[in-house]
Structure formats: structure tokens, C-alpha cells
Amino acid sequence: MHFSIIMWRFLDLDKIDGFYSAAVFEAIGSHVGAGSSPETILFWRVRSPVVYIGYHQCVEDEINANFCREGGIGIVRRILGGGCGFCDDNQILFSVIGRDDGVIPNDIQEAYSKVLGGVVNALVSLGAGGEIEPARNAVYSHGRKISGNAQGRFDGAVMVNGSLLLAFDFEMMDQVLKNPTKNLRPVASAREGMVTLRELGIIDMAAVKNSLRQGFENALGVSSYEGKLTESENKRASVILEKYVRNDWIYMMDNKRAMRKKNRLTELTRFSDDTLSETSL
After folding, report:
1. What backbone phi and psi angles, to 5 degrees, belong to 272?
2. Would you identify the CATH topology of the domain 7-250?
3. Would you say residue 265 has pLDDT above 90?
4. Rounded to a whole number, what is the largest CA-CA distance in the chain?
5. Residue 145 in contact with residue 180, Cβ under 8 Å?
6. What are the helix (H) ranges across 165-230?
7. Distance from the first to the final alpha carbon of the chain
8. Rounded to an integer, what distance in angstroms lies between the CA atom of residue 229 and that of residue 265?
9. What is the pTM of this model?
10. What is the 3 state secondary structure string of the chain?
């Protein structure tokens, strides 16, 4: 009996711009969903600090925007849901991008379980140990969070993104995020609720990347080959990058909420005027 090996592409872009990263994984997702690019395991790190915000979130609720502006920290609204995450170059960021009729389950929680099993595999092979925290779609090690994650489905693709903490600037995160412990188990501070690989004595980045790649392969039941972005993906990413850097995209949900409030105020004012007119009659 012969079994065909499912092959995925592996991309490690190393350090790239945070806004560009969002454009890249959207471009890859569109191509994977259309069948014009192979299913992909993508790694990157951000060249300079950014905070990724979930598609449905308001910047005003989550982020100290003035601090970010003054410190040159980018605010990147991604196309995926989930919560906020502060990222610098001490994290390996990943995107596991498959077709919606492929090996990643259709059920949202089952998809998380399958893909995040790859992170757990990596932590086990590195000697750190880990477990999935379903309530927060996260991976914990030694009782503390070491990987936060988000998921999205669009254009025929399913995508699970996340981070793996090599080290972390907790003081910076405390200033960037308005509620740093929001996505953690109940703790007094983010420092108490999170752990890094460095704290666990793991500092070899190449070994971590290799373990993470193999962990995803084993979790998904696939093999992977070293690939590169296609010309079409590069062109698409360059075009949609313009969207990610615009304020109307970054503050999209804030603007929508402001418009809803304005419309409600207008309706209330009109109702009040109509009531006064009827009373005077």
C-alpha cells in the first residue's frame, strides 16, 4: 500500500516590517485559497516593535496610541480576529496557512487544537514542555503563557497565526497595552502570567525554529520544503501593504463606533424635536 506525502512550503522571512508581515500573510492566504500557491508554514520576526490588533477591536480600548506614536511603535490591524499582542524581534511569529478543504479542521477549536499541537510538540522536543489552553487559544509552559494565537478564514484559506516567546520586554508591553493581563489566566501582572524560552534555559534560535517547523509538520501530518514567495504573492503584498499603513484601516473599528454613536445622537435629537413639536400642538 502506498501513501502519498502531503508537501507544504516552508518560508522563513526572518526580520521584516510589521505592516508588511500582515500584507504578506494575507497575500499568501489569498493565493493558497485560490490554489495558486502551496499550503504554507510561514515564520518571521518584526524588524522593529509593533502591536498587532484583532480585526474587530478598537484601538482606543486596547492600546495607548500616543505612547506608540511617540515611541515609533506601529499599530497593525490584522485581518484575523483575536486580541492584541505586543511583538518585538525576541519572538518567532508564525502563520500556518492551509486550504479550507485541507488538513486543518473546519471547526474553529479543532483547528486550534491541531495547529497549536505543533507548538506543544516543539516545546516538548526542546525540553520545556507545554499544553494548549483552549479557553484562551494559547499555549502554556510551566503554568504560564508562552504562545498567543489567532485564527481567520477568507478566500478559501484557513490561517492560524501566533507567537513563540524567546524573550520579552514586559515593561514595554505594560506601557503599550491598556490591559496587559487581559488574555492571561488571572494574574496580578503580565510578568507573572507569561514565560519565555530564555527563562527556561533555551536560547538557540536555530534550534527553536527547527523544532517549531518539525512540530507543525508532525501535528499536521505533512512534510515541508524550503520555498520562497512567488512573484505574484510579492506583487499582491506590495499592493495591499498600502491598506495596512492607512489610518482609516488602523482605526476602522474606532471610526465605525464613532459613526454609530453620531447616528444614535442624531436619532435621539430628531426624536426629541418631534416630541417637542407634538407637545406644542
Report:
1. -65, -40
2. BirA Bifunctional Protein; domain 2 (3.30.930)
3. no
4. 89
5. no
6. 170-176, 190-193, 205-220
7. 89
8. 49
9. 0.92
10. CCCCCCEEEEEEEEEECHHHHHHHHHHHHHHHHHCCCCCEEEEEEECCCEEEECCCCCHHHHECHHHHHHHCCEEEECCCCCCCEEECCCEEEEEEEEECCCCCCCCHHHHHHHHHHHHHHHHHHHCCCCEEEHHHCEEEECCEEEEEEEEEEECCEEEEEEEEECCCCHHHHHHHECCCCCCCCCCCCHHHHECCCCCCCCCCHHHHHHHHHHHHHHHHCCEEEECCCCHHHHHHHHHHHHHHCCHHHHCHHHHHHHHHHHHHHHHHHHHHHHHHHHHHC
Pick from 55-59, 89-93, 128-132, 274-278: least confident: 274-278
Strand order in the sheet with 50-53: 74-77, 50-53, 85-87
Residue whose entry in the numeric block shows the C-alpha cell 487559544 = 137
List, for residues 173-210, the tens digit of each pLDDT value: 999 999 999 999 999 999 999 999 999 999 999 999 99
Provide the β-strand partners of residue 150: 161
How do 223-226 and 7-16 pair as beta strands?
parallel
Q: How many residues does the chain have?
A: 281
Start-end of H helices in 35-181: 59-62, 65-71, 108-126, 170-176
**Which residues are registered as beta bridge partners of 96?**
41, 160
